[in-house]
Design goal:
Helix content of chain B: under 10%
Radius of gyration of chain A: 14 Å
Radius of gyration of chain B: 14 Å
Number of helices of chain B: 0
Order of helices and strands of chain A: EEEEEEEEEEE
Distance between the termini of chain A: 37 Å
Shape of chain A: globular
Oligomer: heterodimer
Largest interface: A-B, 25 and 22 residues
Largest sheet of chain A: 7 strands, mixed
Largest sheet of chain B: 6 strands, mixed
Helix content of chain A: under 10%
Structural class of chain B: mainly beta
């Protein structure tokens, strides 16, 4: 099946630093990828839709200057948490939809646990 | 906007027994997809089963089956012959059939399934 690689799986950083998370589709192309945030024992909340070659679309309440998304190729999207603060600590998950019509499936990365000290 | 409701925060089942997880949704669309995802302690999202709204036949995948009631907007998951490895958080999710590539998943809040020996 299709594989989405996300790394790092865990990162600990100091307050004020920036952290980059990568999401790669290993065996398919994905014009569109999605970034989610998940708090402990809670559901996944969509943060933004990442589009190759264009600006990301952010959900209401998500700061685009805080969470920078770059979809540089058809297989790679990155999420950069800028000037991270303890309240940004969370589990971040990406997903990707294979290009080509008729695919209703989304494939998920294994997630990144961000801890900001 | 679509909403997905899972009214059971937690369910318990004994090994080899059967358990049903409930999910209801609200939409004005006639064509869409419904999914059940499993999130074990590893936090990797695993697709359990999917249903296409235009298909009346309920989807089945080995020990997993759904009861899809389109008019009632209900989509329950039945797990037969429960195993210890089934213990996880289960999320019900909705996705529009819009093939533009931008439609993502809307998740319910999740049901934690506990399996006892």
């Amino acid at each position: 099946g299709a594989v989405v690689s996300q790394h790092p799986s865990r990162v600990i950083c100091k307050s004020g630093t920036s952290v980059k998370i990568e999401c790669r589709s290993l065996d398919f192309q994905a014009t569109t990828m999605f970034w989610y945030r998940q708090f402990p024992k809670k559901s996944l909340m969509l943060m933004a839709t990442s589009n190759e070659g264009s600006k990301a679309t952010y959900e209401q309440g998500v700061e685009k200057d805080k969470f920078l998304i770059n979809h540089a190729s058809l297989t790679l999207s990155t999420l950069t948490v800028t000037s991270a603060h303890p309240e940004d600590s969370s589990f971040y998950i990406c997903s990707a939809r294979p290009d080509g019509g008729g695919s209703e499936k989304l494939f998920f990365g294994s997630g990144t646990q961000l801890s900001v000290l | 906007a679509q909403t997905v409701t899972q009214s059971q925060p937690e369910m318990s089942v004994q090994e080899a027994e059967t358990v049903t997880l409930s999910c209801t949704y609200d939409t004005s669309e006639s064509d869409y997809y419904l999914f059940w995802y499993k999130q074990p302690p590893s936090r990797q999202m695993i697709l359990v089963i999917r249903q296409e709204a235009y298909k009346q036949q309920n989807a089945t995948e080995n020990r997993f089956s759904v009861n899809f009631q389109k008019a009632a907007k209900s989509f329950s998951l039945k797990i037969s012959d429960s195993q210890l490895g089934d213990a996880a958080m289960y999320f019900c999710a909705y996705r529009s059939a819009d093939d533009s590539g931008y439609s993502t998943l809307t998740f319910g809040k999740g049901t934690m399934l506990l399996v006892s020996p």
